[in-house]
Amino acid sequence: MKNNGSRLKLVFPSEEYKEQIQEFVEEFRKNGENVIPGSGGLDKLPSFEEWLKKINEDLSKETAEEKGRVQATQYIAVSIGDNKIIGVIQLRYRLNEHLYNYGGHIGDSIRPLERNKGYSTEMIGLALKEAKKVGIGNVLMTCNKENKASARTIMKNGGILENEVENEGKITQRYWISLKKRFADGRNKSNNILEKEYKNMRIDNEEFKGNISLLDIKNVKSPWYVDDENRCILGNNFKWLEIYPDGKNYCLTVIYDDKEKVSEWYYDIARTVGEEKGVPYEDDLYLDVVIVPDGRIHLLDEDELQEAFEKSEISQKDYDMAYRVANELIKRYSSKEKIEKLAEFSNKYLEILKRK
Q1: Which of 54, 146, 148, 213 would staple 184 via disulfide (CB 3.0–4.6 Å)?
Q2: pLDDT of residue 356
Q3: How far apart are CA 260 and CA 254, in angstroms?
Q4: Which residues make Cβ contacts (< 8 Å) with residue 252, sequence separation at least 6?
Q5: Is 289 strand, coil or helix?
Q6: What's the confidence (pLDDT) of residue 227?
Q7: Exposure string for 271-294, b = 16+ CB within 10 A, e = fewer
Q8: pLDDT at 64
Q9: Three-state SS annotation for 71-138
Q10: CATH topology identical between 8-178 and 181-355
Q11: Do 271 and 285 contact (CB within 8 A), yes or no?
Q12: Structure confidence at residue 244 (pLDDT)
């Protein structure tokens, strides 16, 4: 599991690393540290073999839950050059009450003699890629408020502080890292969009305030169709007009086909809408509202929202907000007149962006 440009790779522990892992634990103890966060119990279990058995059990949701734990993958981070263990990091697939408040999805440690070399930031970045692969959309990480270095590494990986909670007389900071950001320039779909042009305008008038982008898609690897309608939403010479209003919990993608006819208006419900290095993005909150030119309206991905809520990746507040915003949009476009006005607005700014 290499990361291009990284000095580290993540490896699932095996007998091959037994001697190194024992030396790793001893280094912590010599440094006066008896707790190794993110080690999956390495600091508590009496032998390497028992630890290896335990982390293999935790790979299975059923087995982990039978033992009163959560499904997790334990990694060691080893240097690509010499295969030396630099740190440990555990990825938890779900959050129980304790992890939701104090532990998070990811726990990690760097061995004492390798600290302050930037390894923690790299290791967390690699773990976030693994989290995305297994479908975790929002990652919670925590640290002791006094641990400024840990807080910095979390923030370098996109962590946003939500709050602070007290735990056994200490203050724990809770940071969320979104893996659901979708950017207007099409970078999230780079595997399928082969050639594109991107433009963005900042609009501030009585009609609209926010960013409007145009993604002019020249060439794609393969077209995308809505399965039950055989309606294409991504193809060669398609245009996506992306509308990011300030202060709203949604963004709108207007999908134009190769004849510049609207295929659909696609509303992404968002936790937040913002900009990063001048490129608009939305922090996706699972629910989507799709409006077809003939007036049909679809509410999508309710199952994903429910799953994220059950896994404690989103709060009750976010869950309720997603449905509230989606229902407001559905109600707003329940009339033909409203859809016609939406079409006029979309076409107006498509022409403006094309001329830019």
Answers
A1: 213
A2: 86
A3: 11
A4: 242, 243, 265, 266, 267, 268
A5: strand
A6: 67
A7: bebeeeeebbbbbbbbbbbbbbee
A8: 96
A9: CEEEEEEEECCCCCEEEEEEEECCCCHHHHHHHECEEEEECHHHCCCCHHHHHHHHHHHHHHHCCCCE
A10: no
A11: yes
A12: 98
pLDDT above 90 covers a percentage of the chain that reads 94
DSSP character at residue 254: E
What are the respective helix, strand and coil percentages of the chain, to the nearest 5?
A: 30, 35, 30
Distance of CA 299 to the CA centre of its chain: 22
Which two three-digit tokens encode residue 144?
């002791």
Nearest to 51 by CA among 39, 66, 37, 36: 39
CATH entry, 8-178, from 3.20.20.70, 2.60.120.280, 3.40.228.10, 3.40.630.30: 3.40.630.30
Tokens of 176: 């969320």
Residues 32 and 106: their CA atoms lie apart, in Å, by 23
Spans of all domains in the chain: 8-178, 181-355
Say which residues have a Cβ less than 8 Å from residue 267's Cβ, sequence separation at least 6: 250, 251, 252, 288, 289, 290, 291, 326, 329
Low-confidence ranges of the chain (pLDDT < 50): 1-3
**What CATH architecture does domain 181-355 belong to?**
Beta Barrel (2.40)
The pLDDT tens digits for 164-188 are 999 888 999 999 999 999 999 999 8
Beta carbons of 172 and 142 less than 8 angstroms apart: yes
Q: What is the pLDDT, as a whole number, of residue 32? A: 96
**Are 192 and 221 contacting, i.e. CB atoms less than 8 angstroms apart?**
yes
Q: What are the C-alpha distances in Å from 68 to residues 54, 62, 106?
A: 12, 10, 18
